[in-house]
Each structure stands twice: as C-alpha cells, then as structure tokens.
Design a protein that fits this description.
The chain is of the alpha+beta class and about 100 residues long. Helix content is about 35%, strand content about 30%. The protein has one domain: Alpha-Beta Plaits.
C-alpha cells in the first residue's frame, strides 16, 4: 500500500442494506478517481458498520477525492443512512507504510 485510508460508515438500525446499495452505486466512481489504487469493503456485522480500506497514490489525491464527494452531494445522500448522520462517518488517514518500526 502506498497511502492507507480507512473510512467507516456506521449504519442506522435497519439501514445497512440501503447503505450497502448506496455504496455499491458510488464505489465505481471512487475506484476510477485519479490516484485511487484500490478500495476494499468489509462489514462489521456486530456494529452494522461498513469499512472501506483505501489505497491512494498520495494523500493529496485522496483529499481531492473527498472534496469532490462533498461538492457532488454524496454526504447528503449518506446523512439519513448513517448512525450519527454524516458526523458518524469516521476516516483514519494513515498515509504511507513505515517499515522501520
């Protein structure tokens, strides 16, 4: 991995299937966005949370992607599906791997 980003989407009670479908429709654009190397999805059943494990060429690419998603309204679409609304979305921007630790 070049630059690791982990994004967690906690679904509201009863909204996991809707969240899955929304992300299923959105992720092809994510995967084809400039600088995206890969996006893998995982579901934590005990918390109804979808986790995206993303690999980016640079954190600048990921930042441009995030700004694009905000501008195009994806967060507005996700708001009613997420526990805590868009504020419930959590992103961990790890950056590059460190082999010297």
């Amino acid at each position: 991995m070049k630059n690791l980003v982990i994004v967690s989407f906690p679904a509201k009670e009863g909204m996991l299937d809707d969240l899955k479908e929304t992300l299923k429709a959105a992720l092809p654009d994510t995967r084809s966005f400039d600088g995206c190397i890969s996006v893998d999805t995982y579901i934590e059943d005990s918390t109804n949370t979808i986790h995206l494990i993303e690999d980016w060429e640079s954190l600048d690419h990921q930042s441009k992607y995030l700004n694009w998603r905000i501008e195009t309204g994806l967060l507005d679409v996700l708001e009613p599906l997420l526990s805590g609304g868009a504020g419930g979305l959590k992103a961990i921007v790890c950056g590059p791997k460190h082999d010297n630790i």
